[in-house]
Here is the input.
Amino acid sequence: MMFTPTDDTFVTAGDSDDNGANFGSEEFMELGAFSIFFDAAILIRFDISSLPTGQNITNATLDLTARPGGTEYEEFDTFEINLIGSNWFEETVTANSSVSVLSGALFVDSGPNPSINLTSFVQDWYSGGTTNYGLLIDNQGSNSFGEFASKEHPTAQAPTLTVEFEPIPEPGALGLFGLGMGLIAFGRRRR
Here is the structure.
């Protein structure tokens, strides 16, 4: 199943003029350090409640698209991806908001149109082990900056979360299958 964000935005730190600004309606999301005085991070959330129950999440991938015509993409060293531990809203969140981050970050190599494996995070959300408040994506490099299309962009691909899953076999079904195979083997031996 493919999901688009319910909320996606970015927050900036370091530039005092932007610390209290909200960017929830922007067509892009900034990420990285534009200078030693400016750092931007992405907040993004997907509602996965429509996934059917009783499934084993086998793969979950976040895809981001570089903003067409945006600031020239520069090579990022590594993305740091954290689960957000408190509620936030696209229309009101700023760098001055108190958005908590949970431990257990993923560190992944990046690129201009990154495809990021989030299977363990989505498994936690799906199982109820962690409340789904979304993700905080930050860049670990210095002086690298880029812009990615948000769900508000009119022509570029919005961020997507693709989740692959398979049914969890019923315990009784496995037992019956094993019993059936045993009976078949026993029957062949008796002949």
Remarks:
- The mean pLDDT is 83.
- Residues 70 and 141 are 20 Å apart (CA to CA).
- The helical segments are 119-127, 171-190.
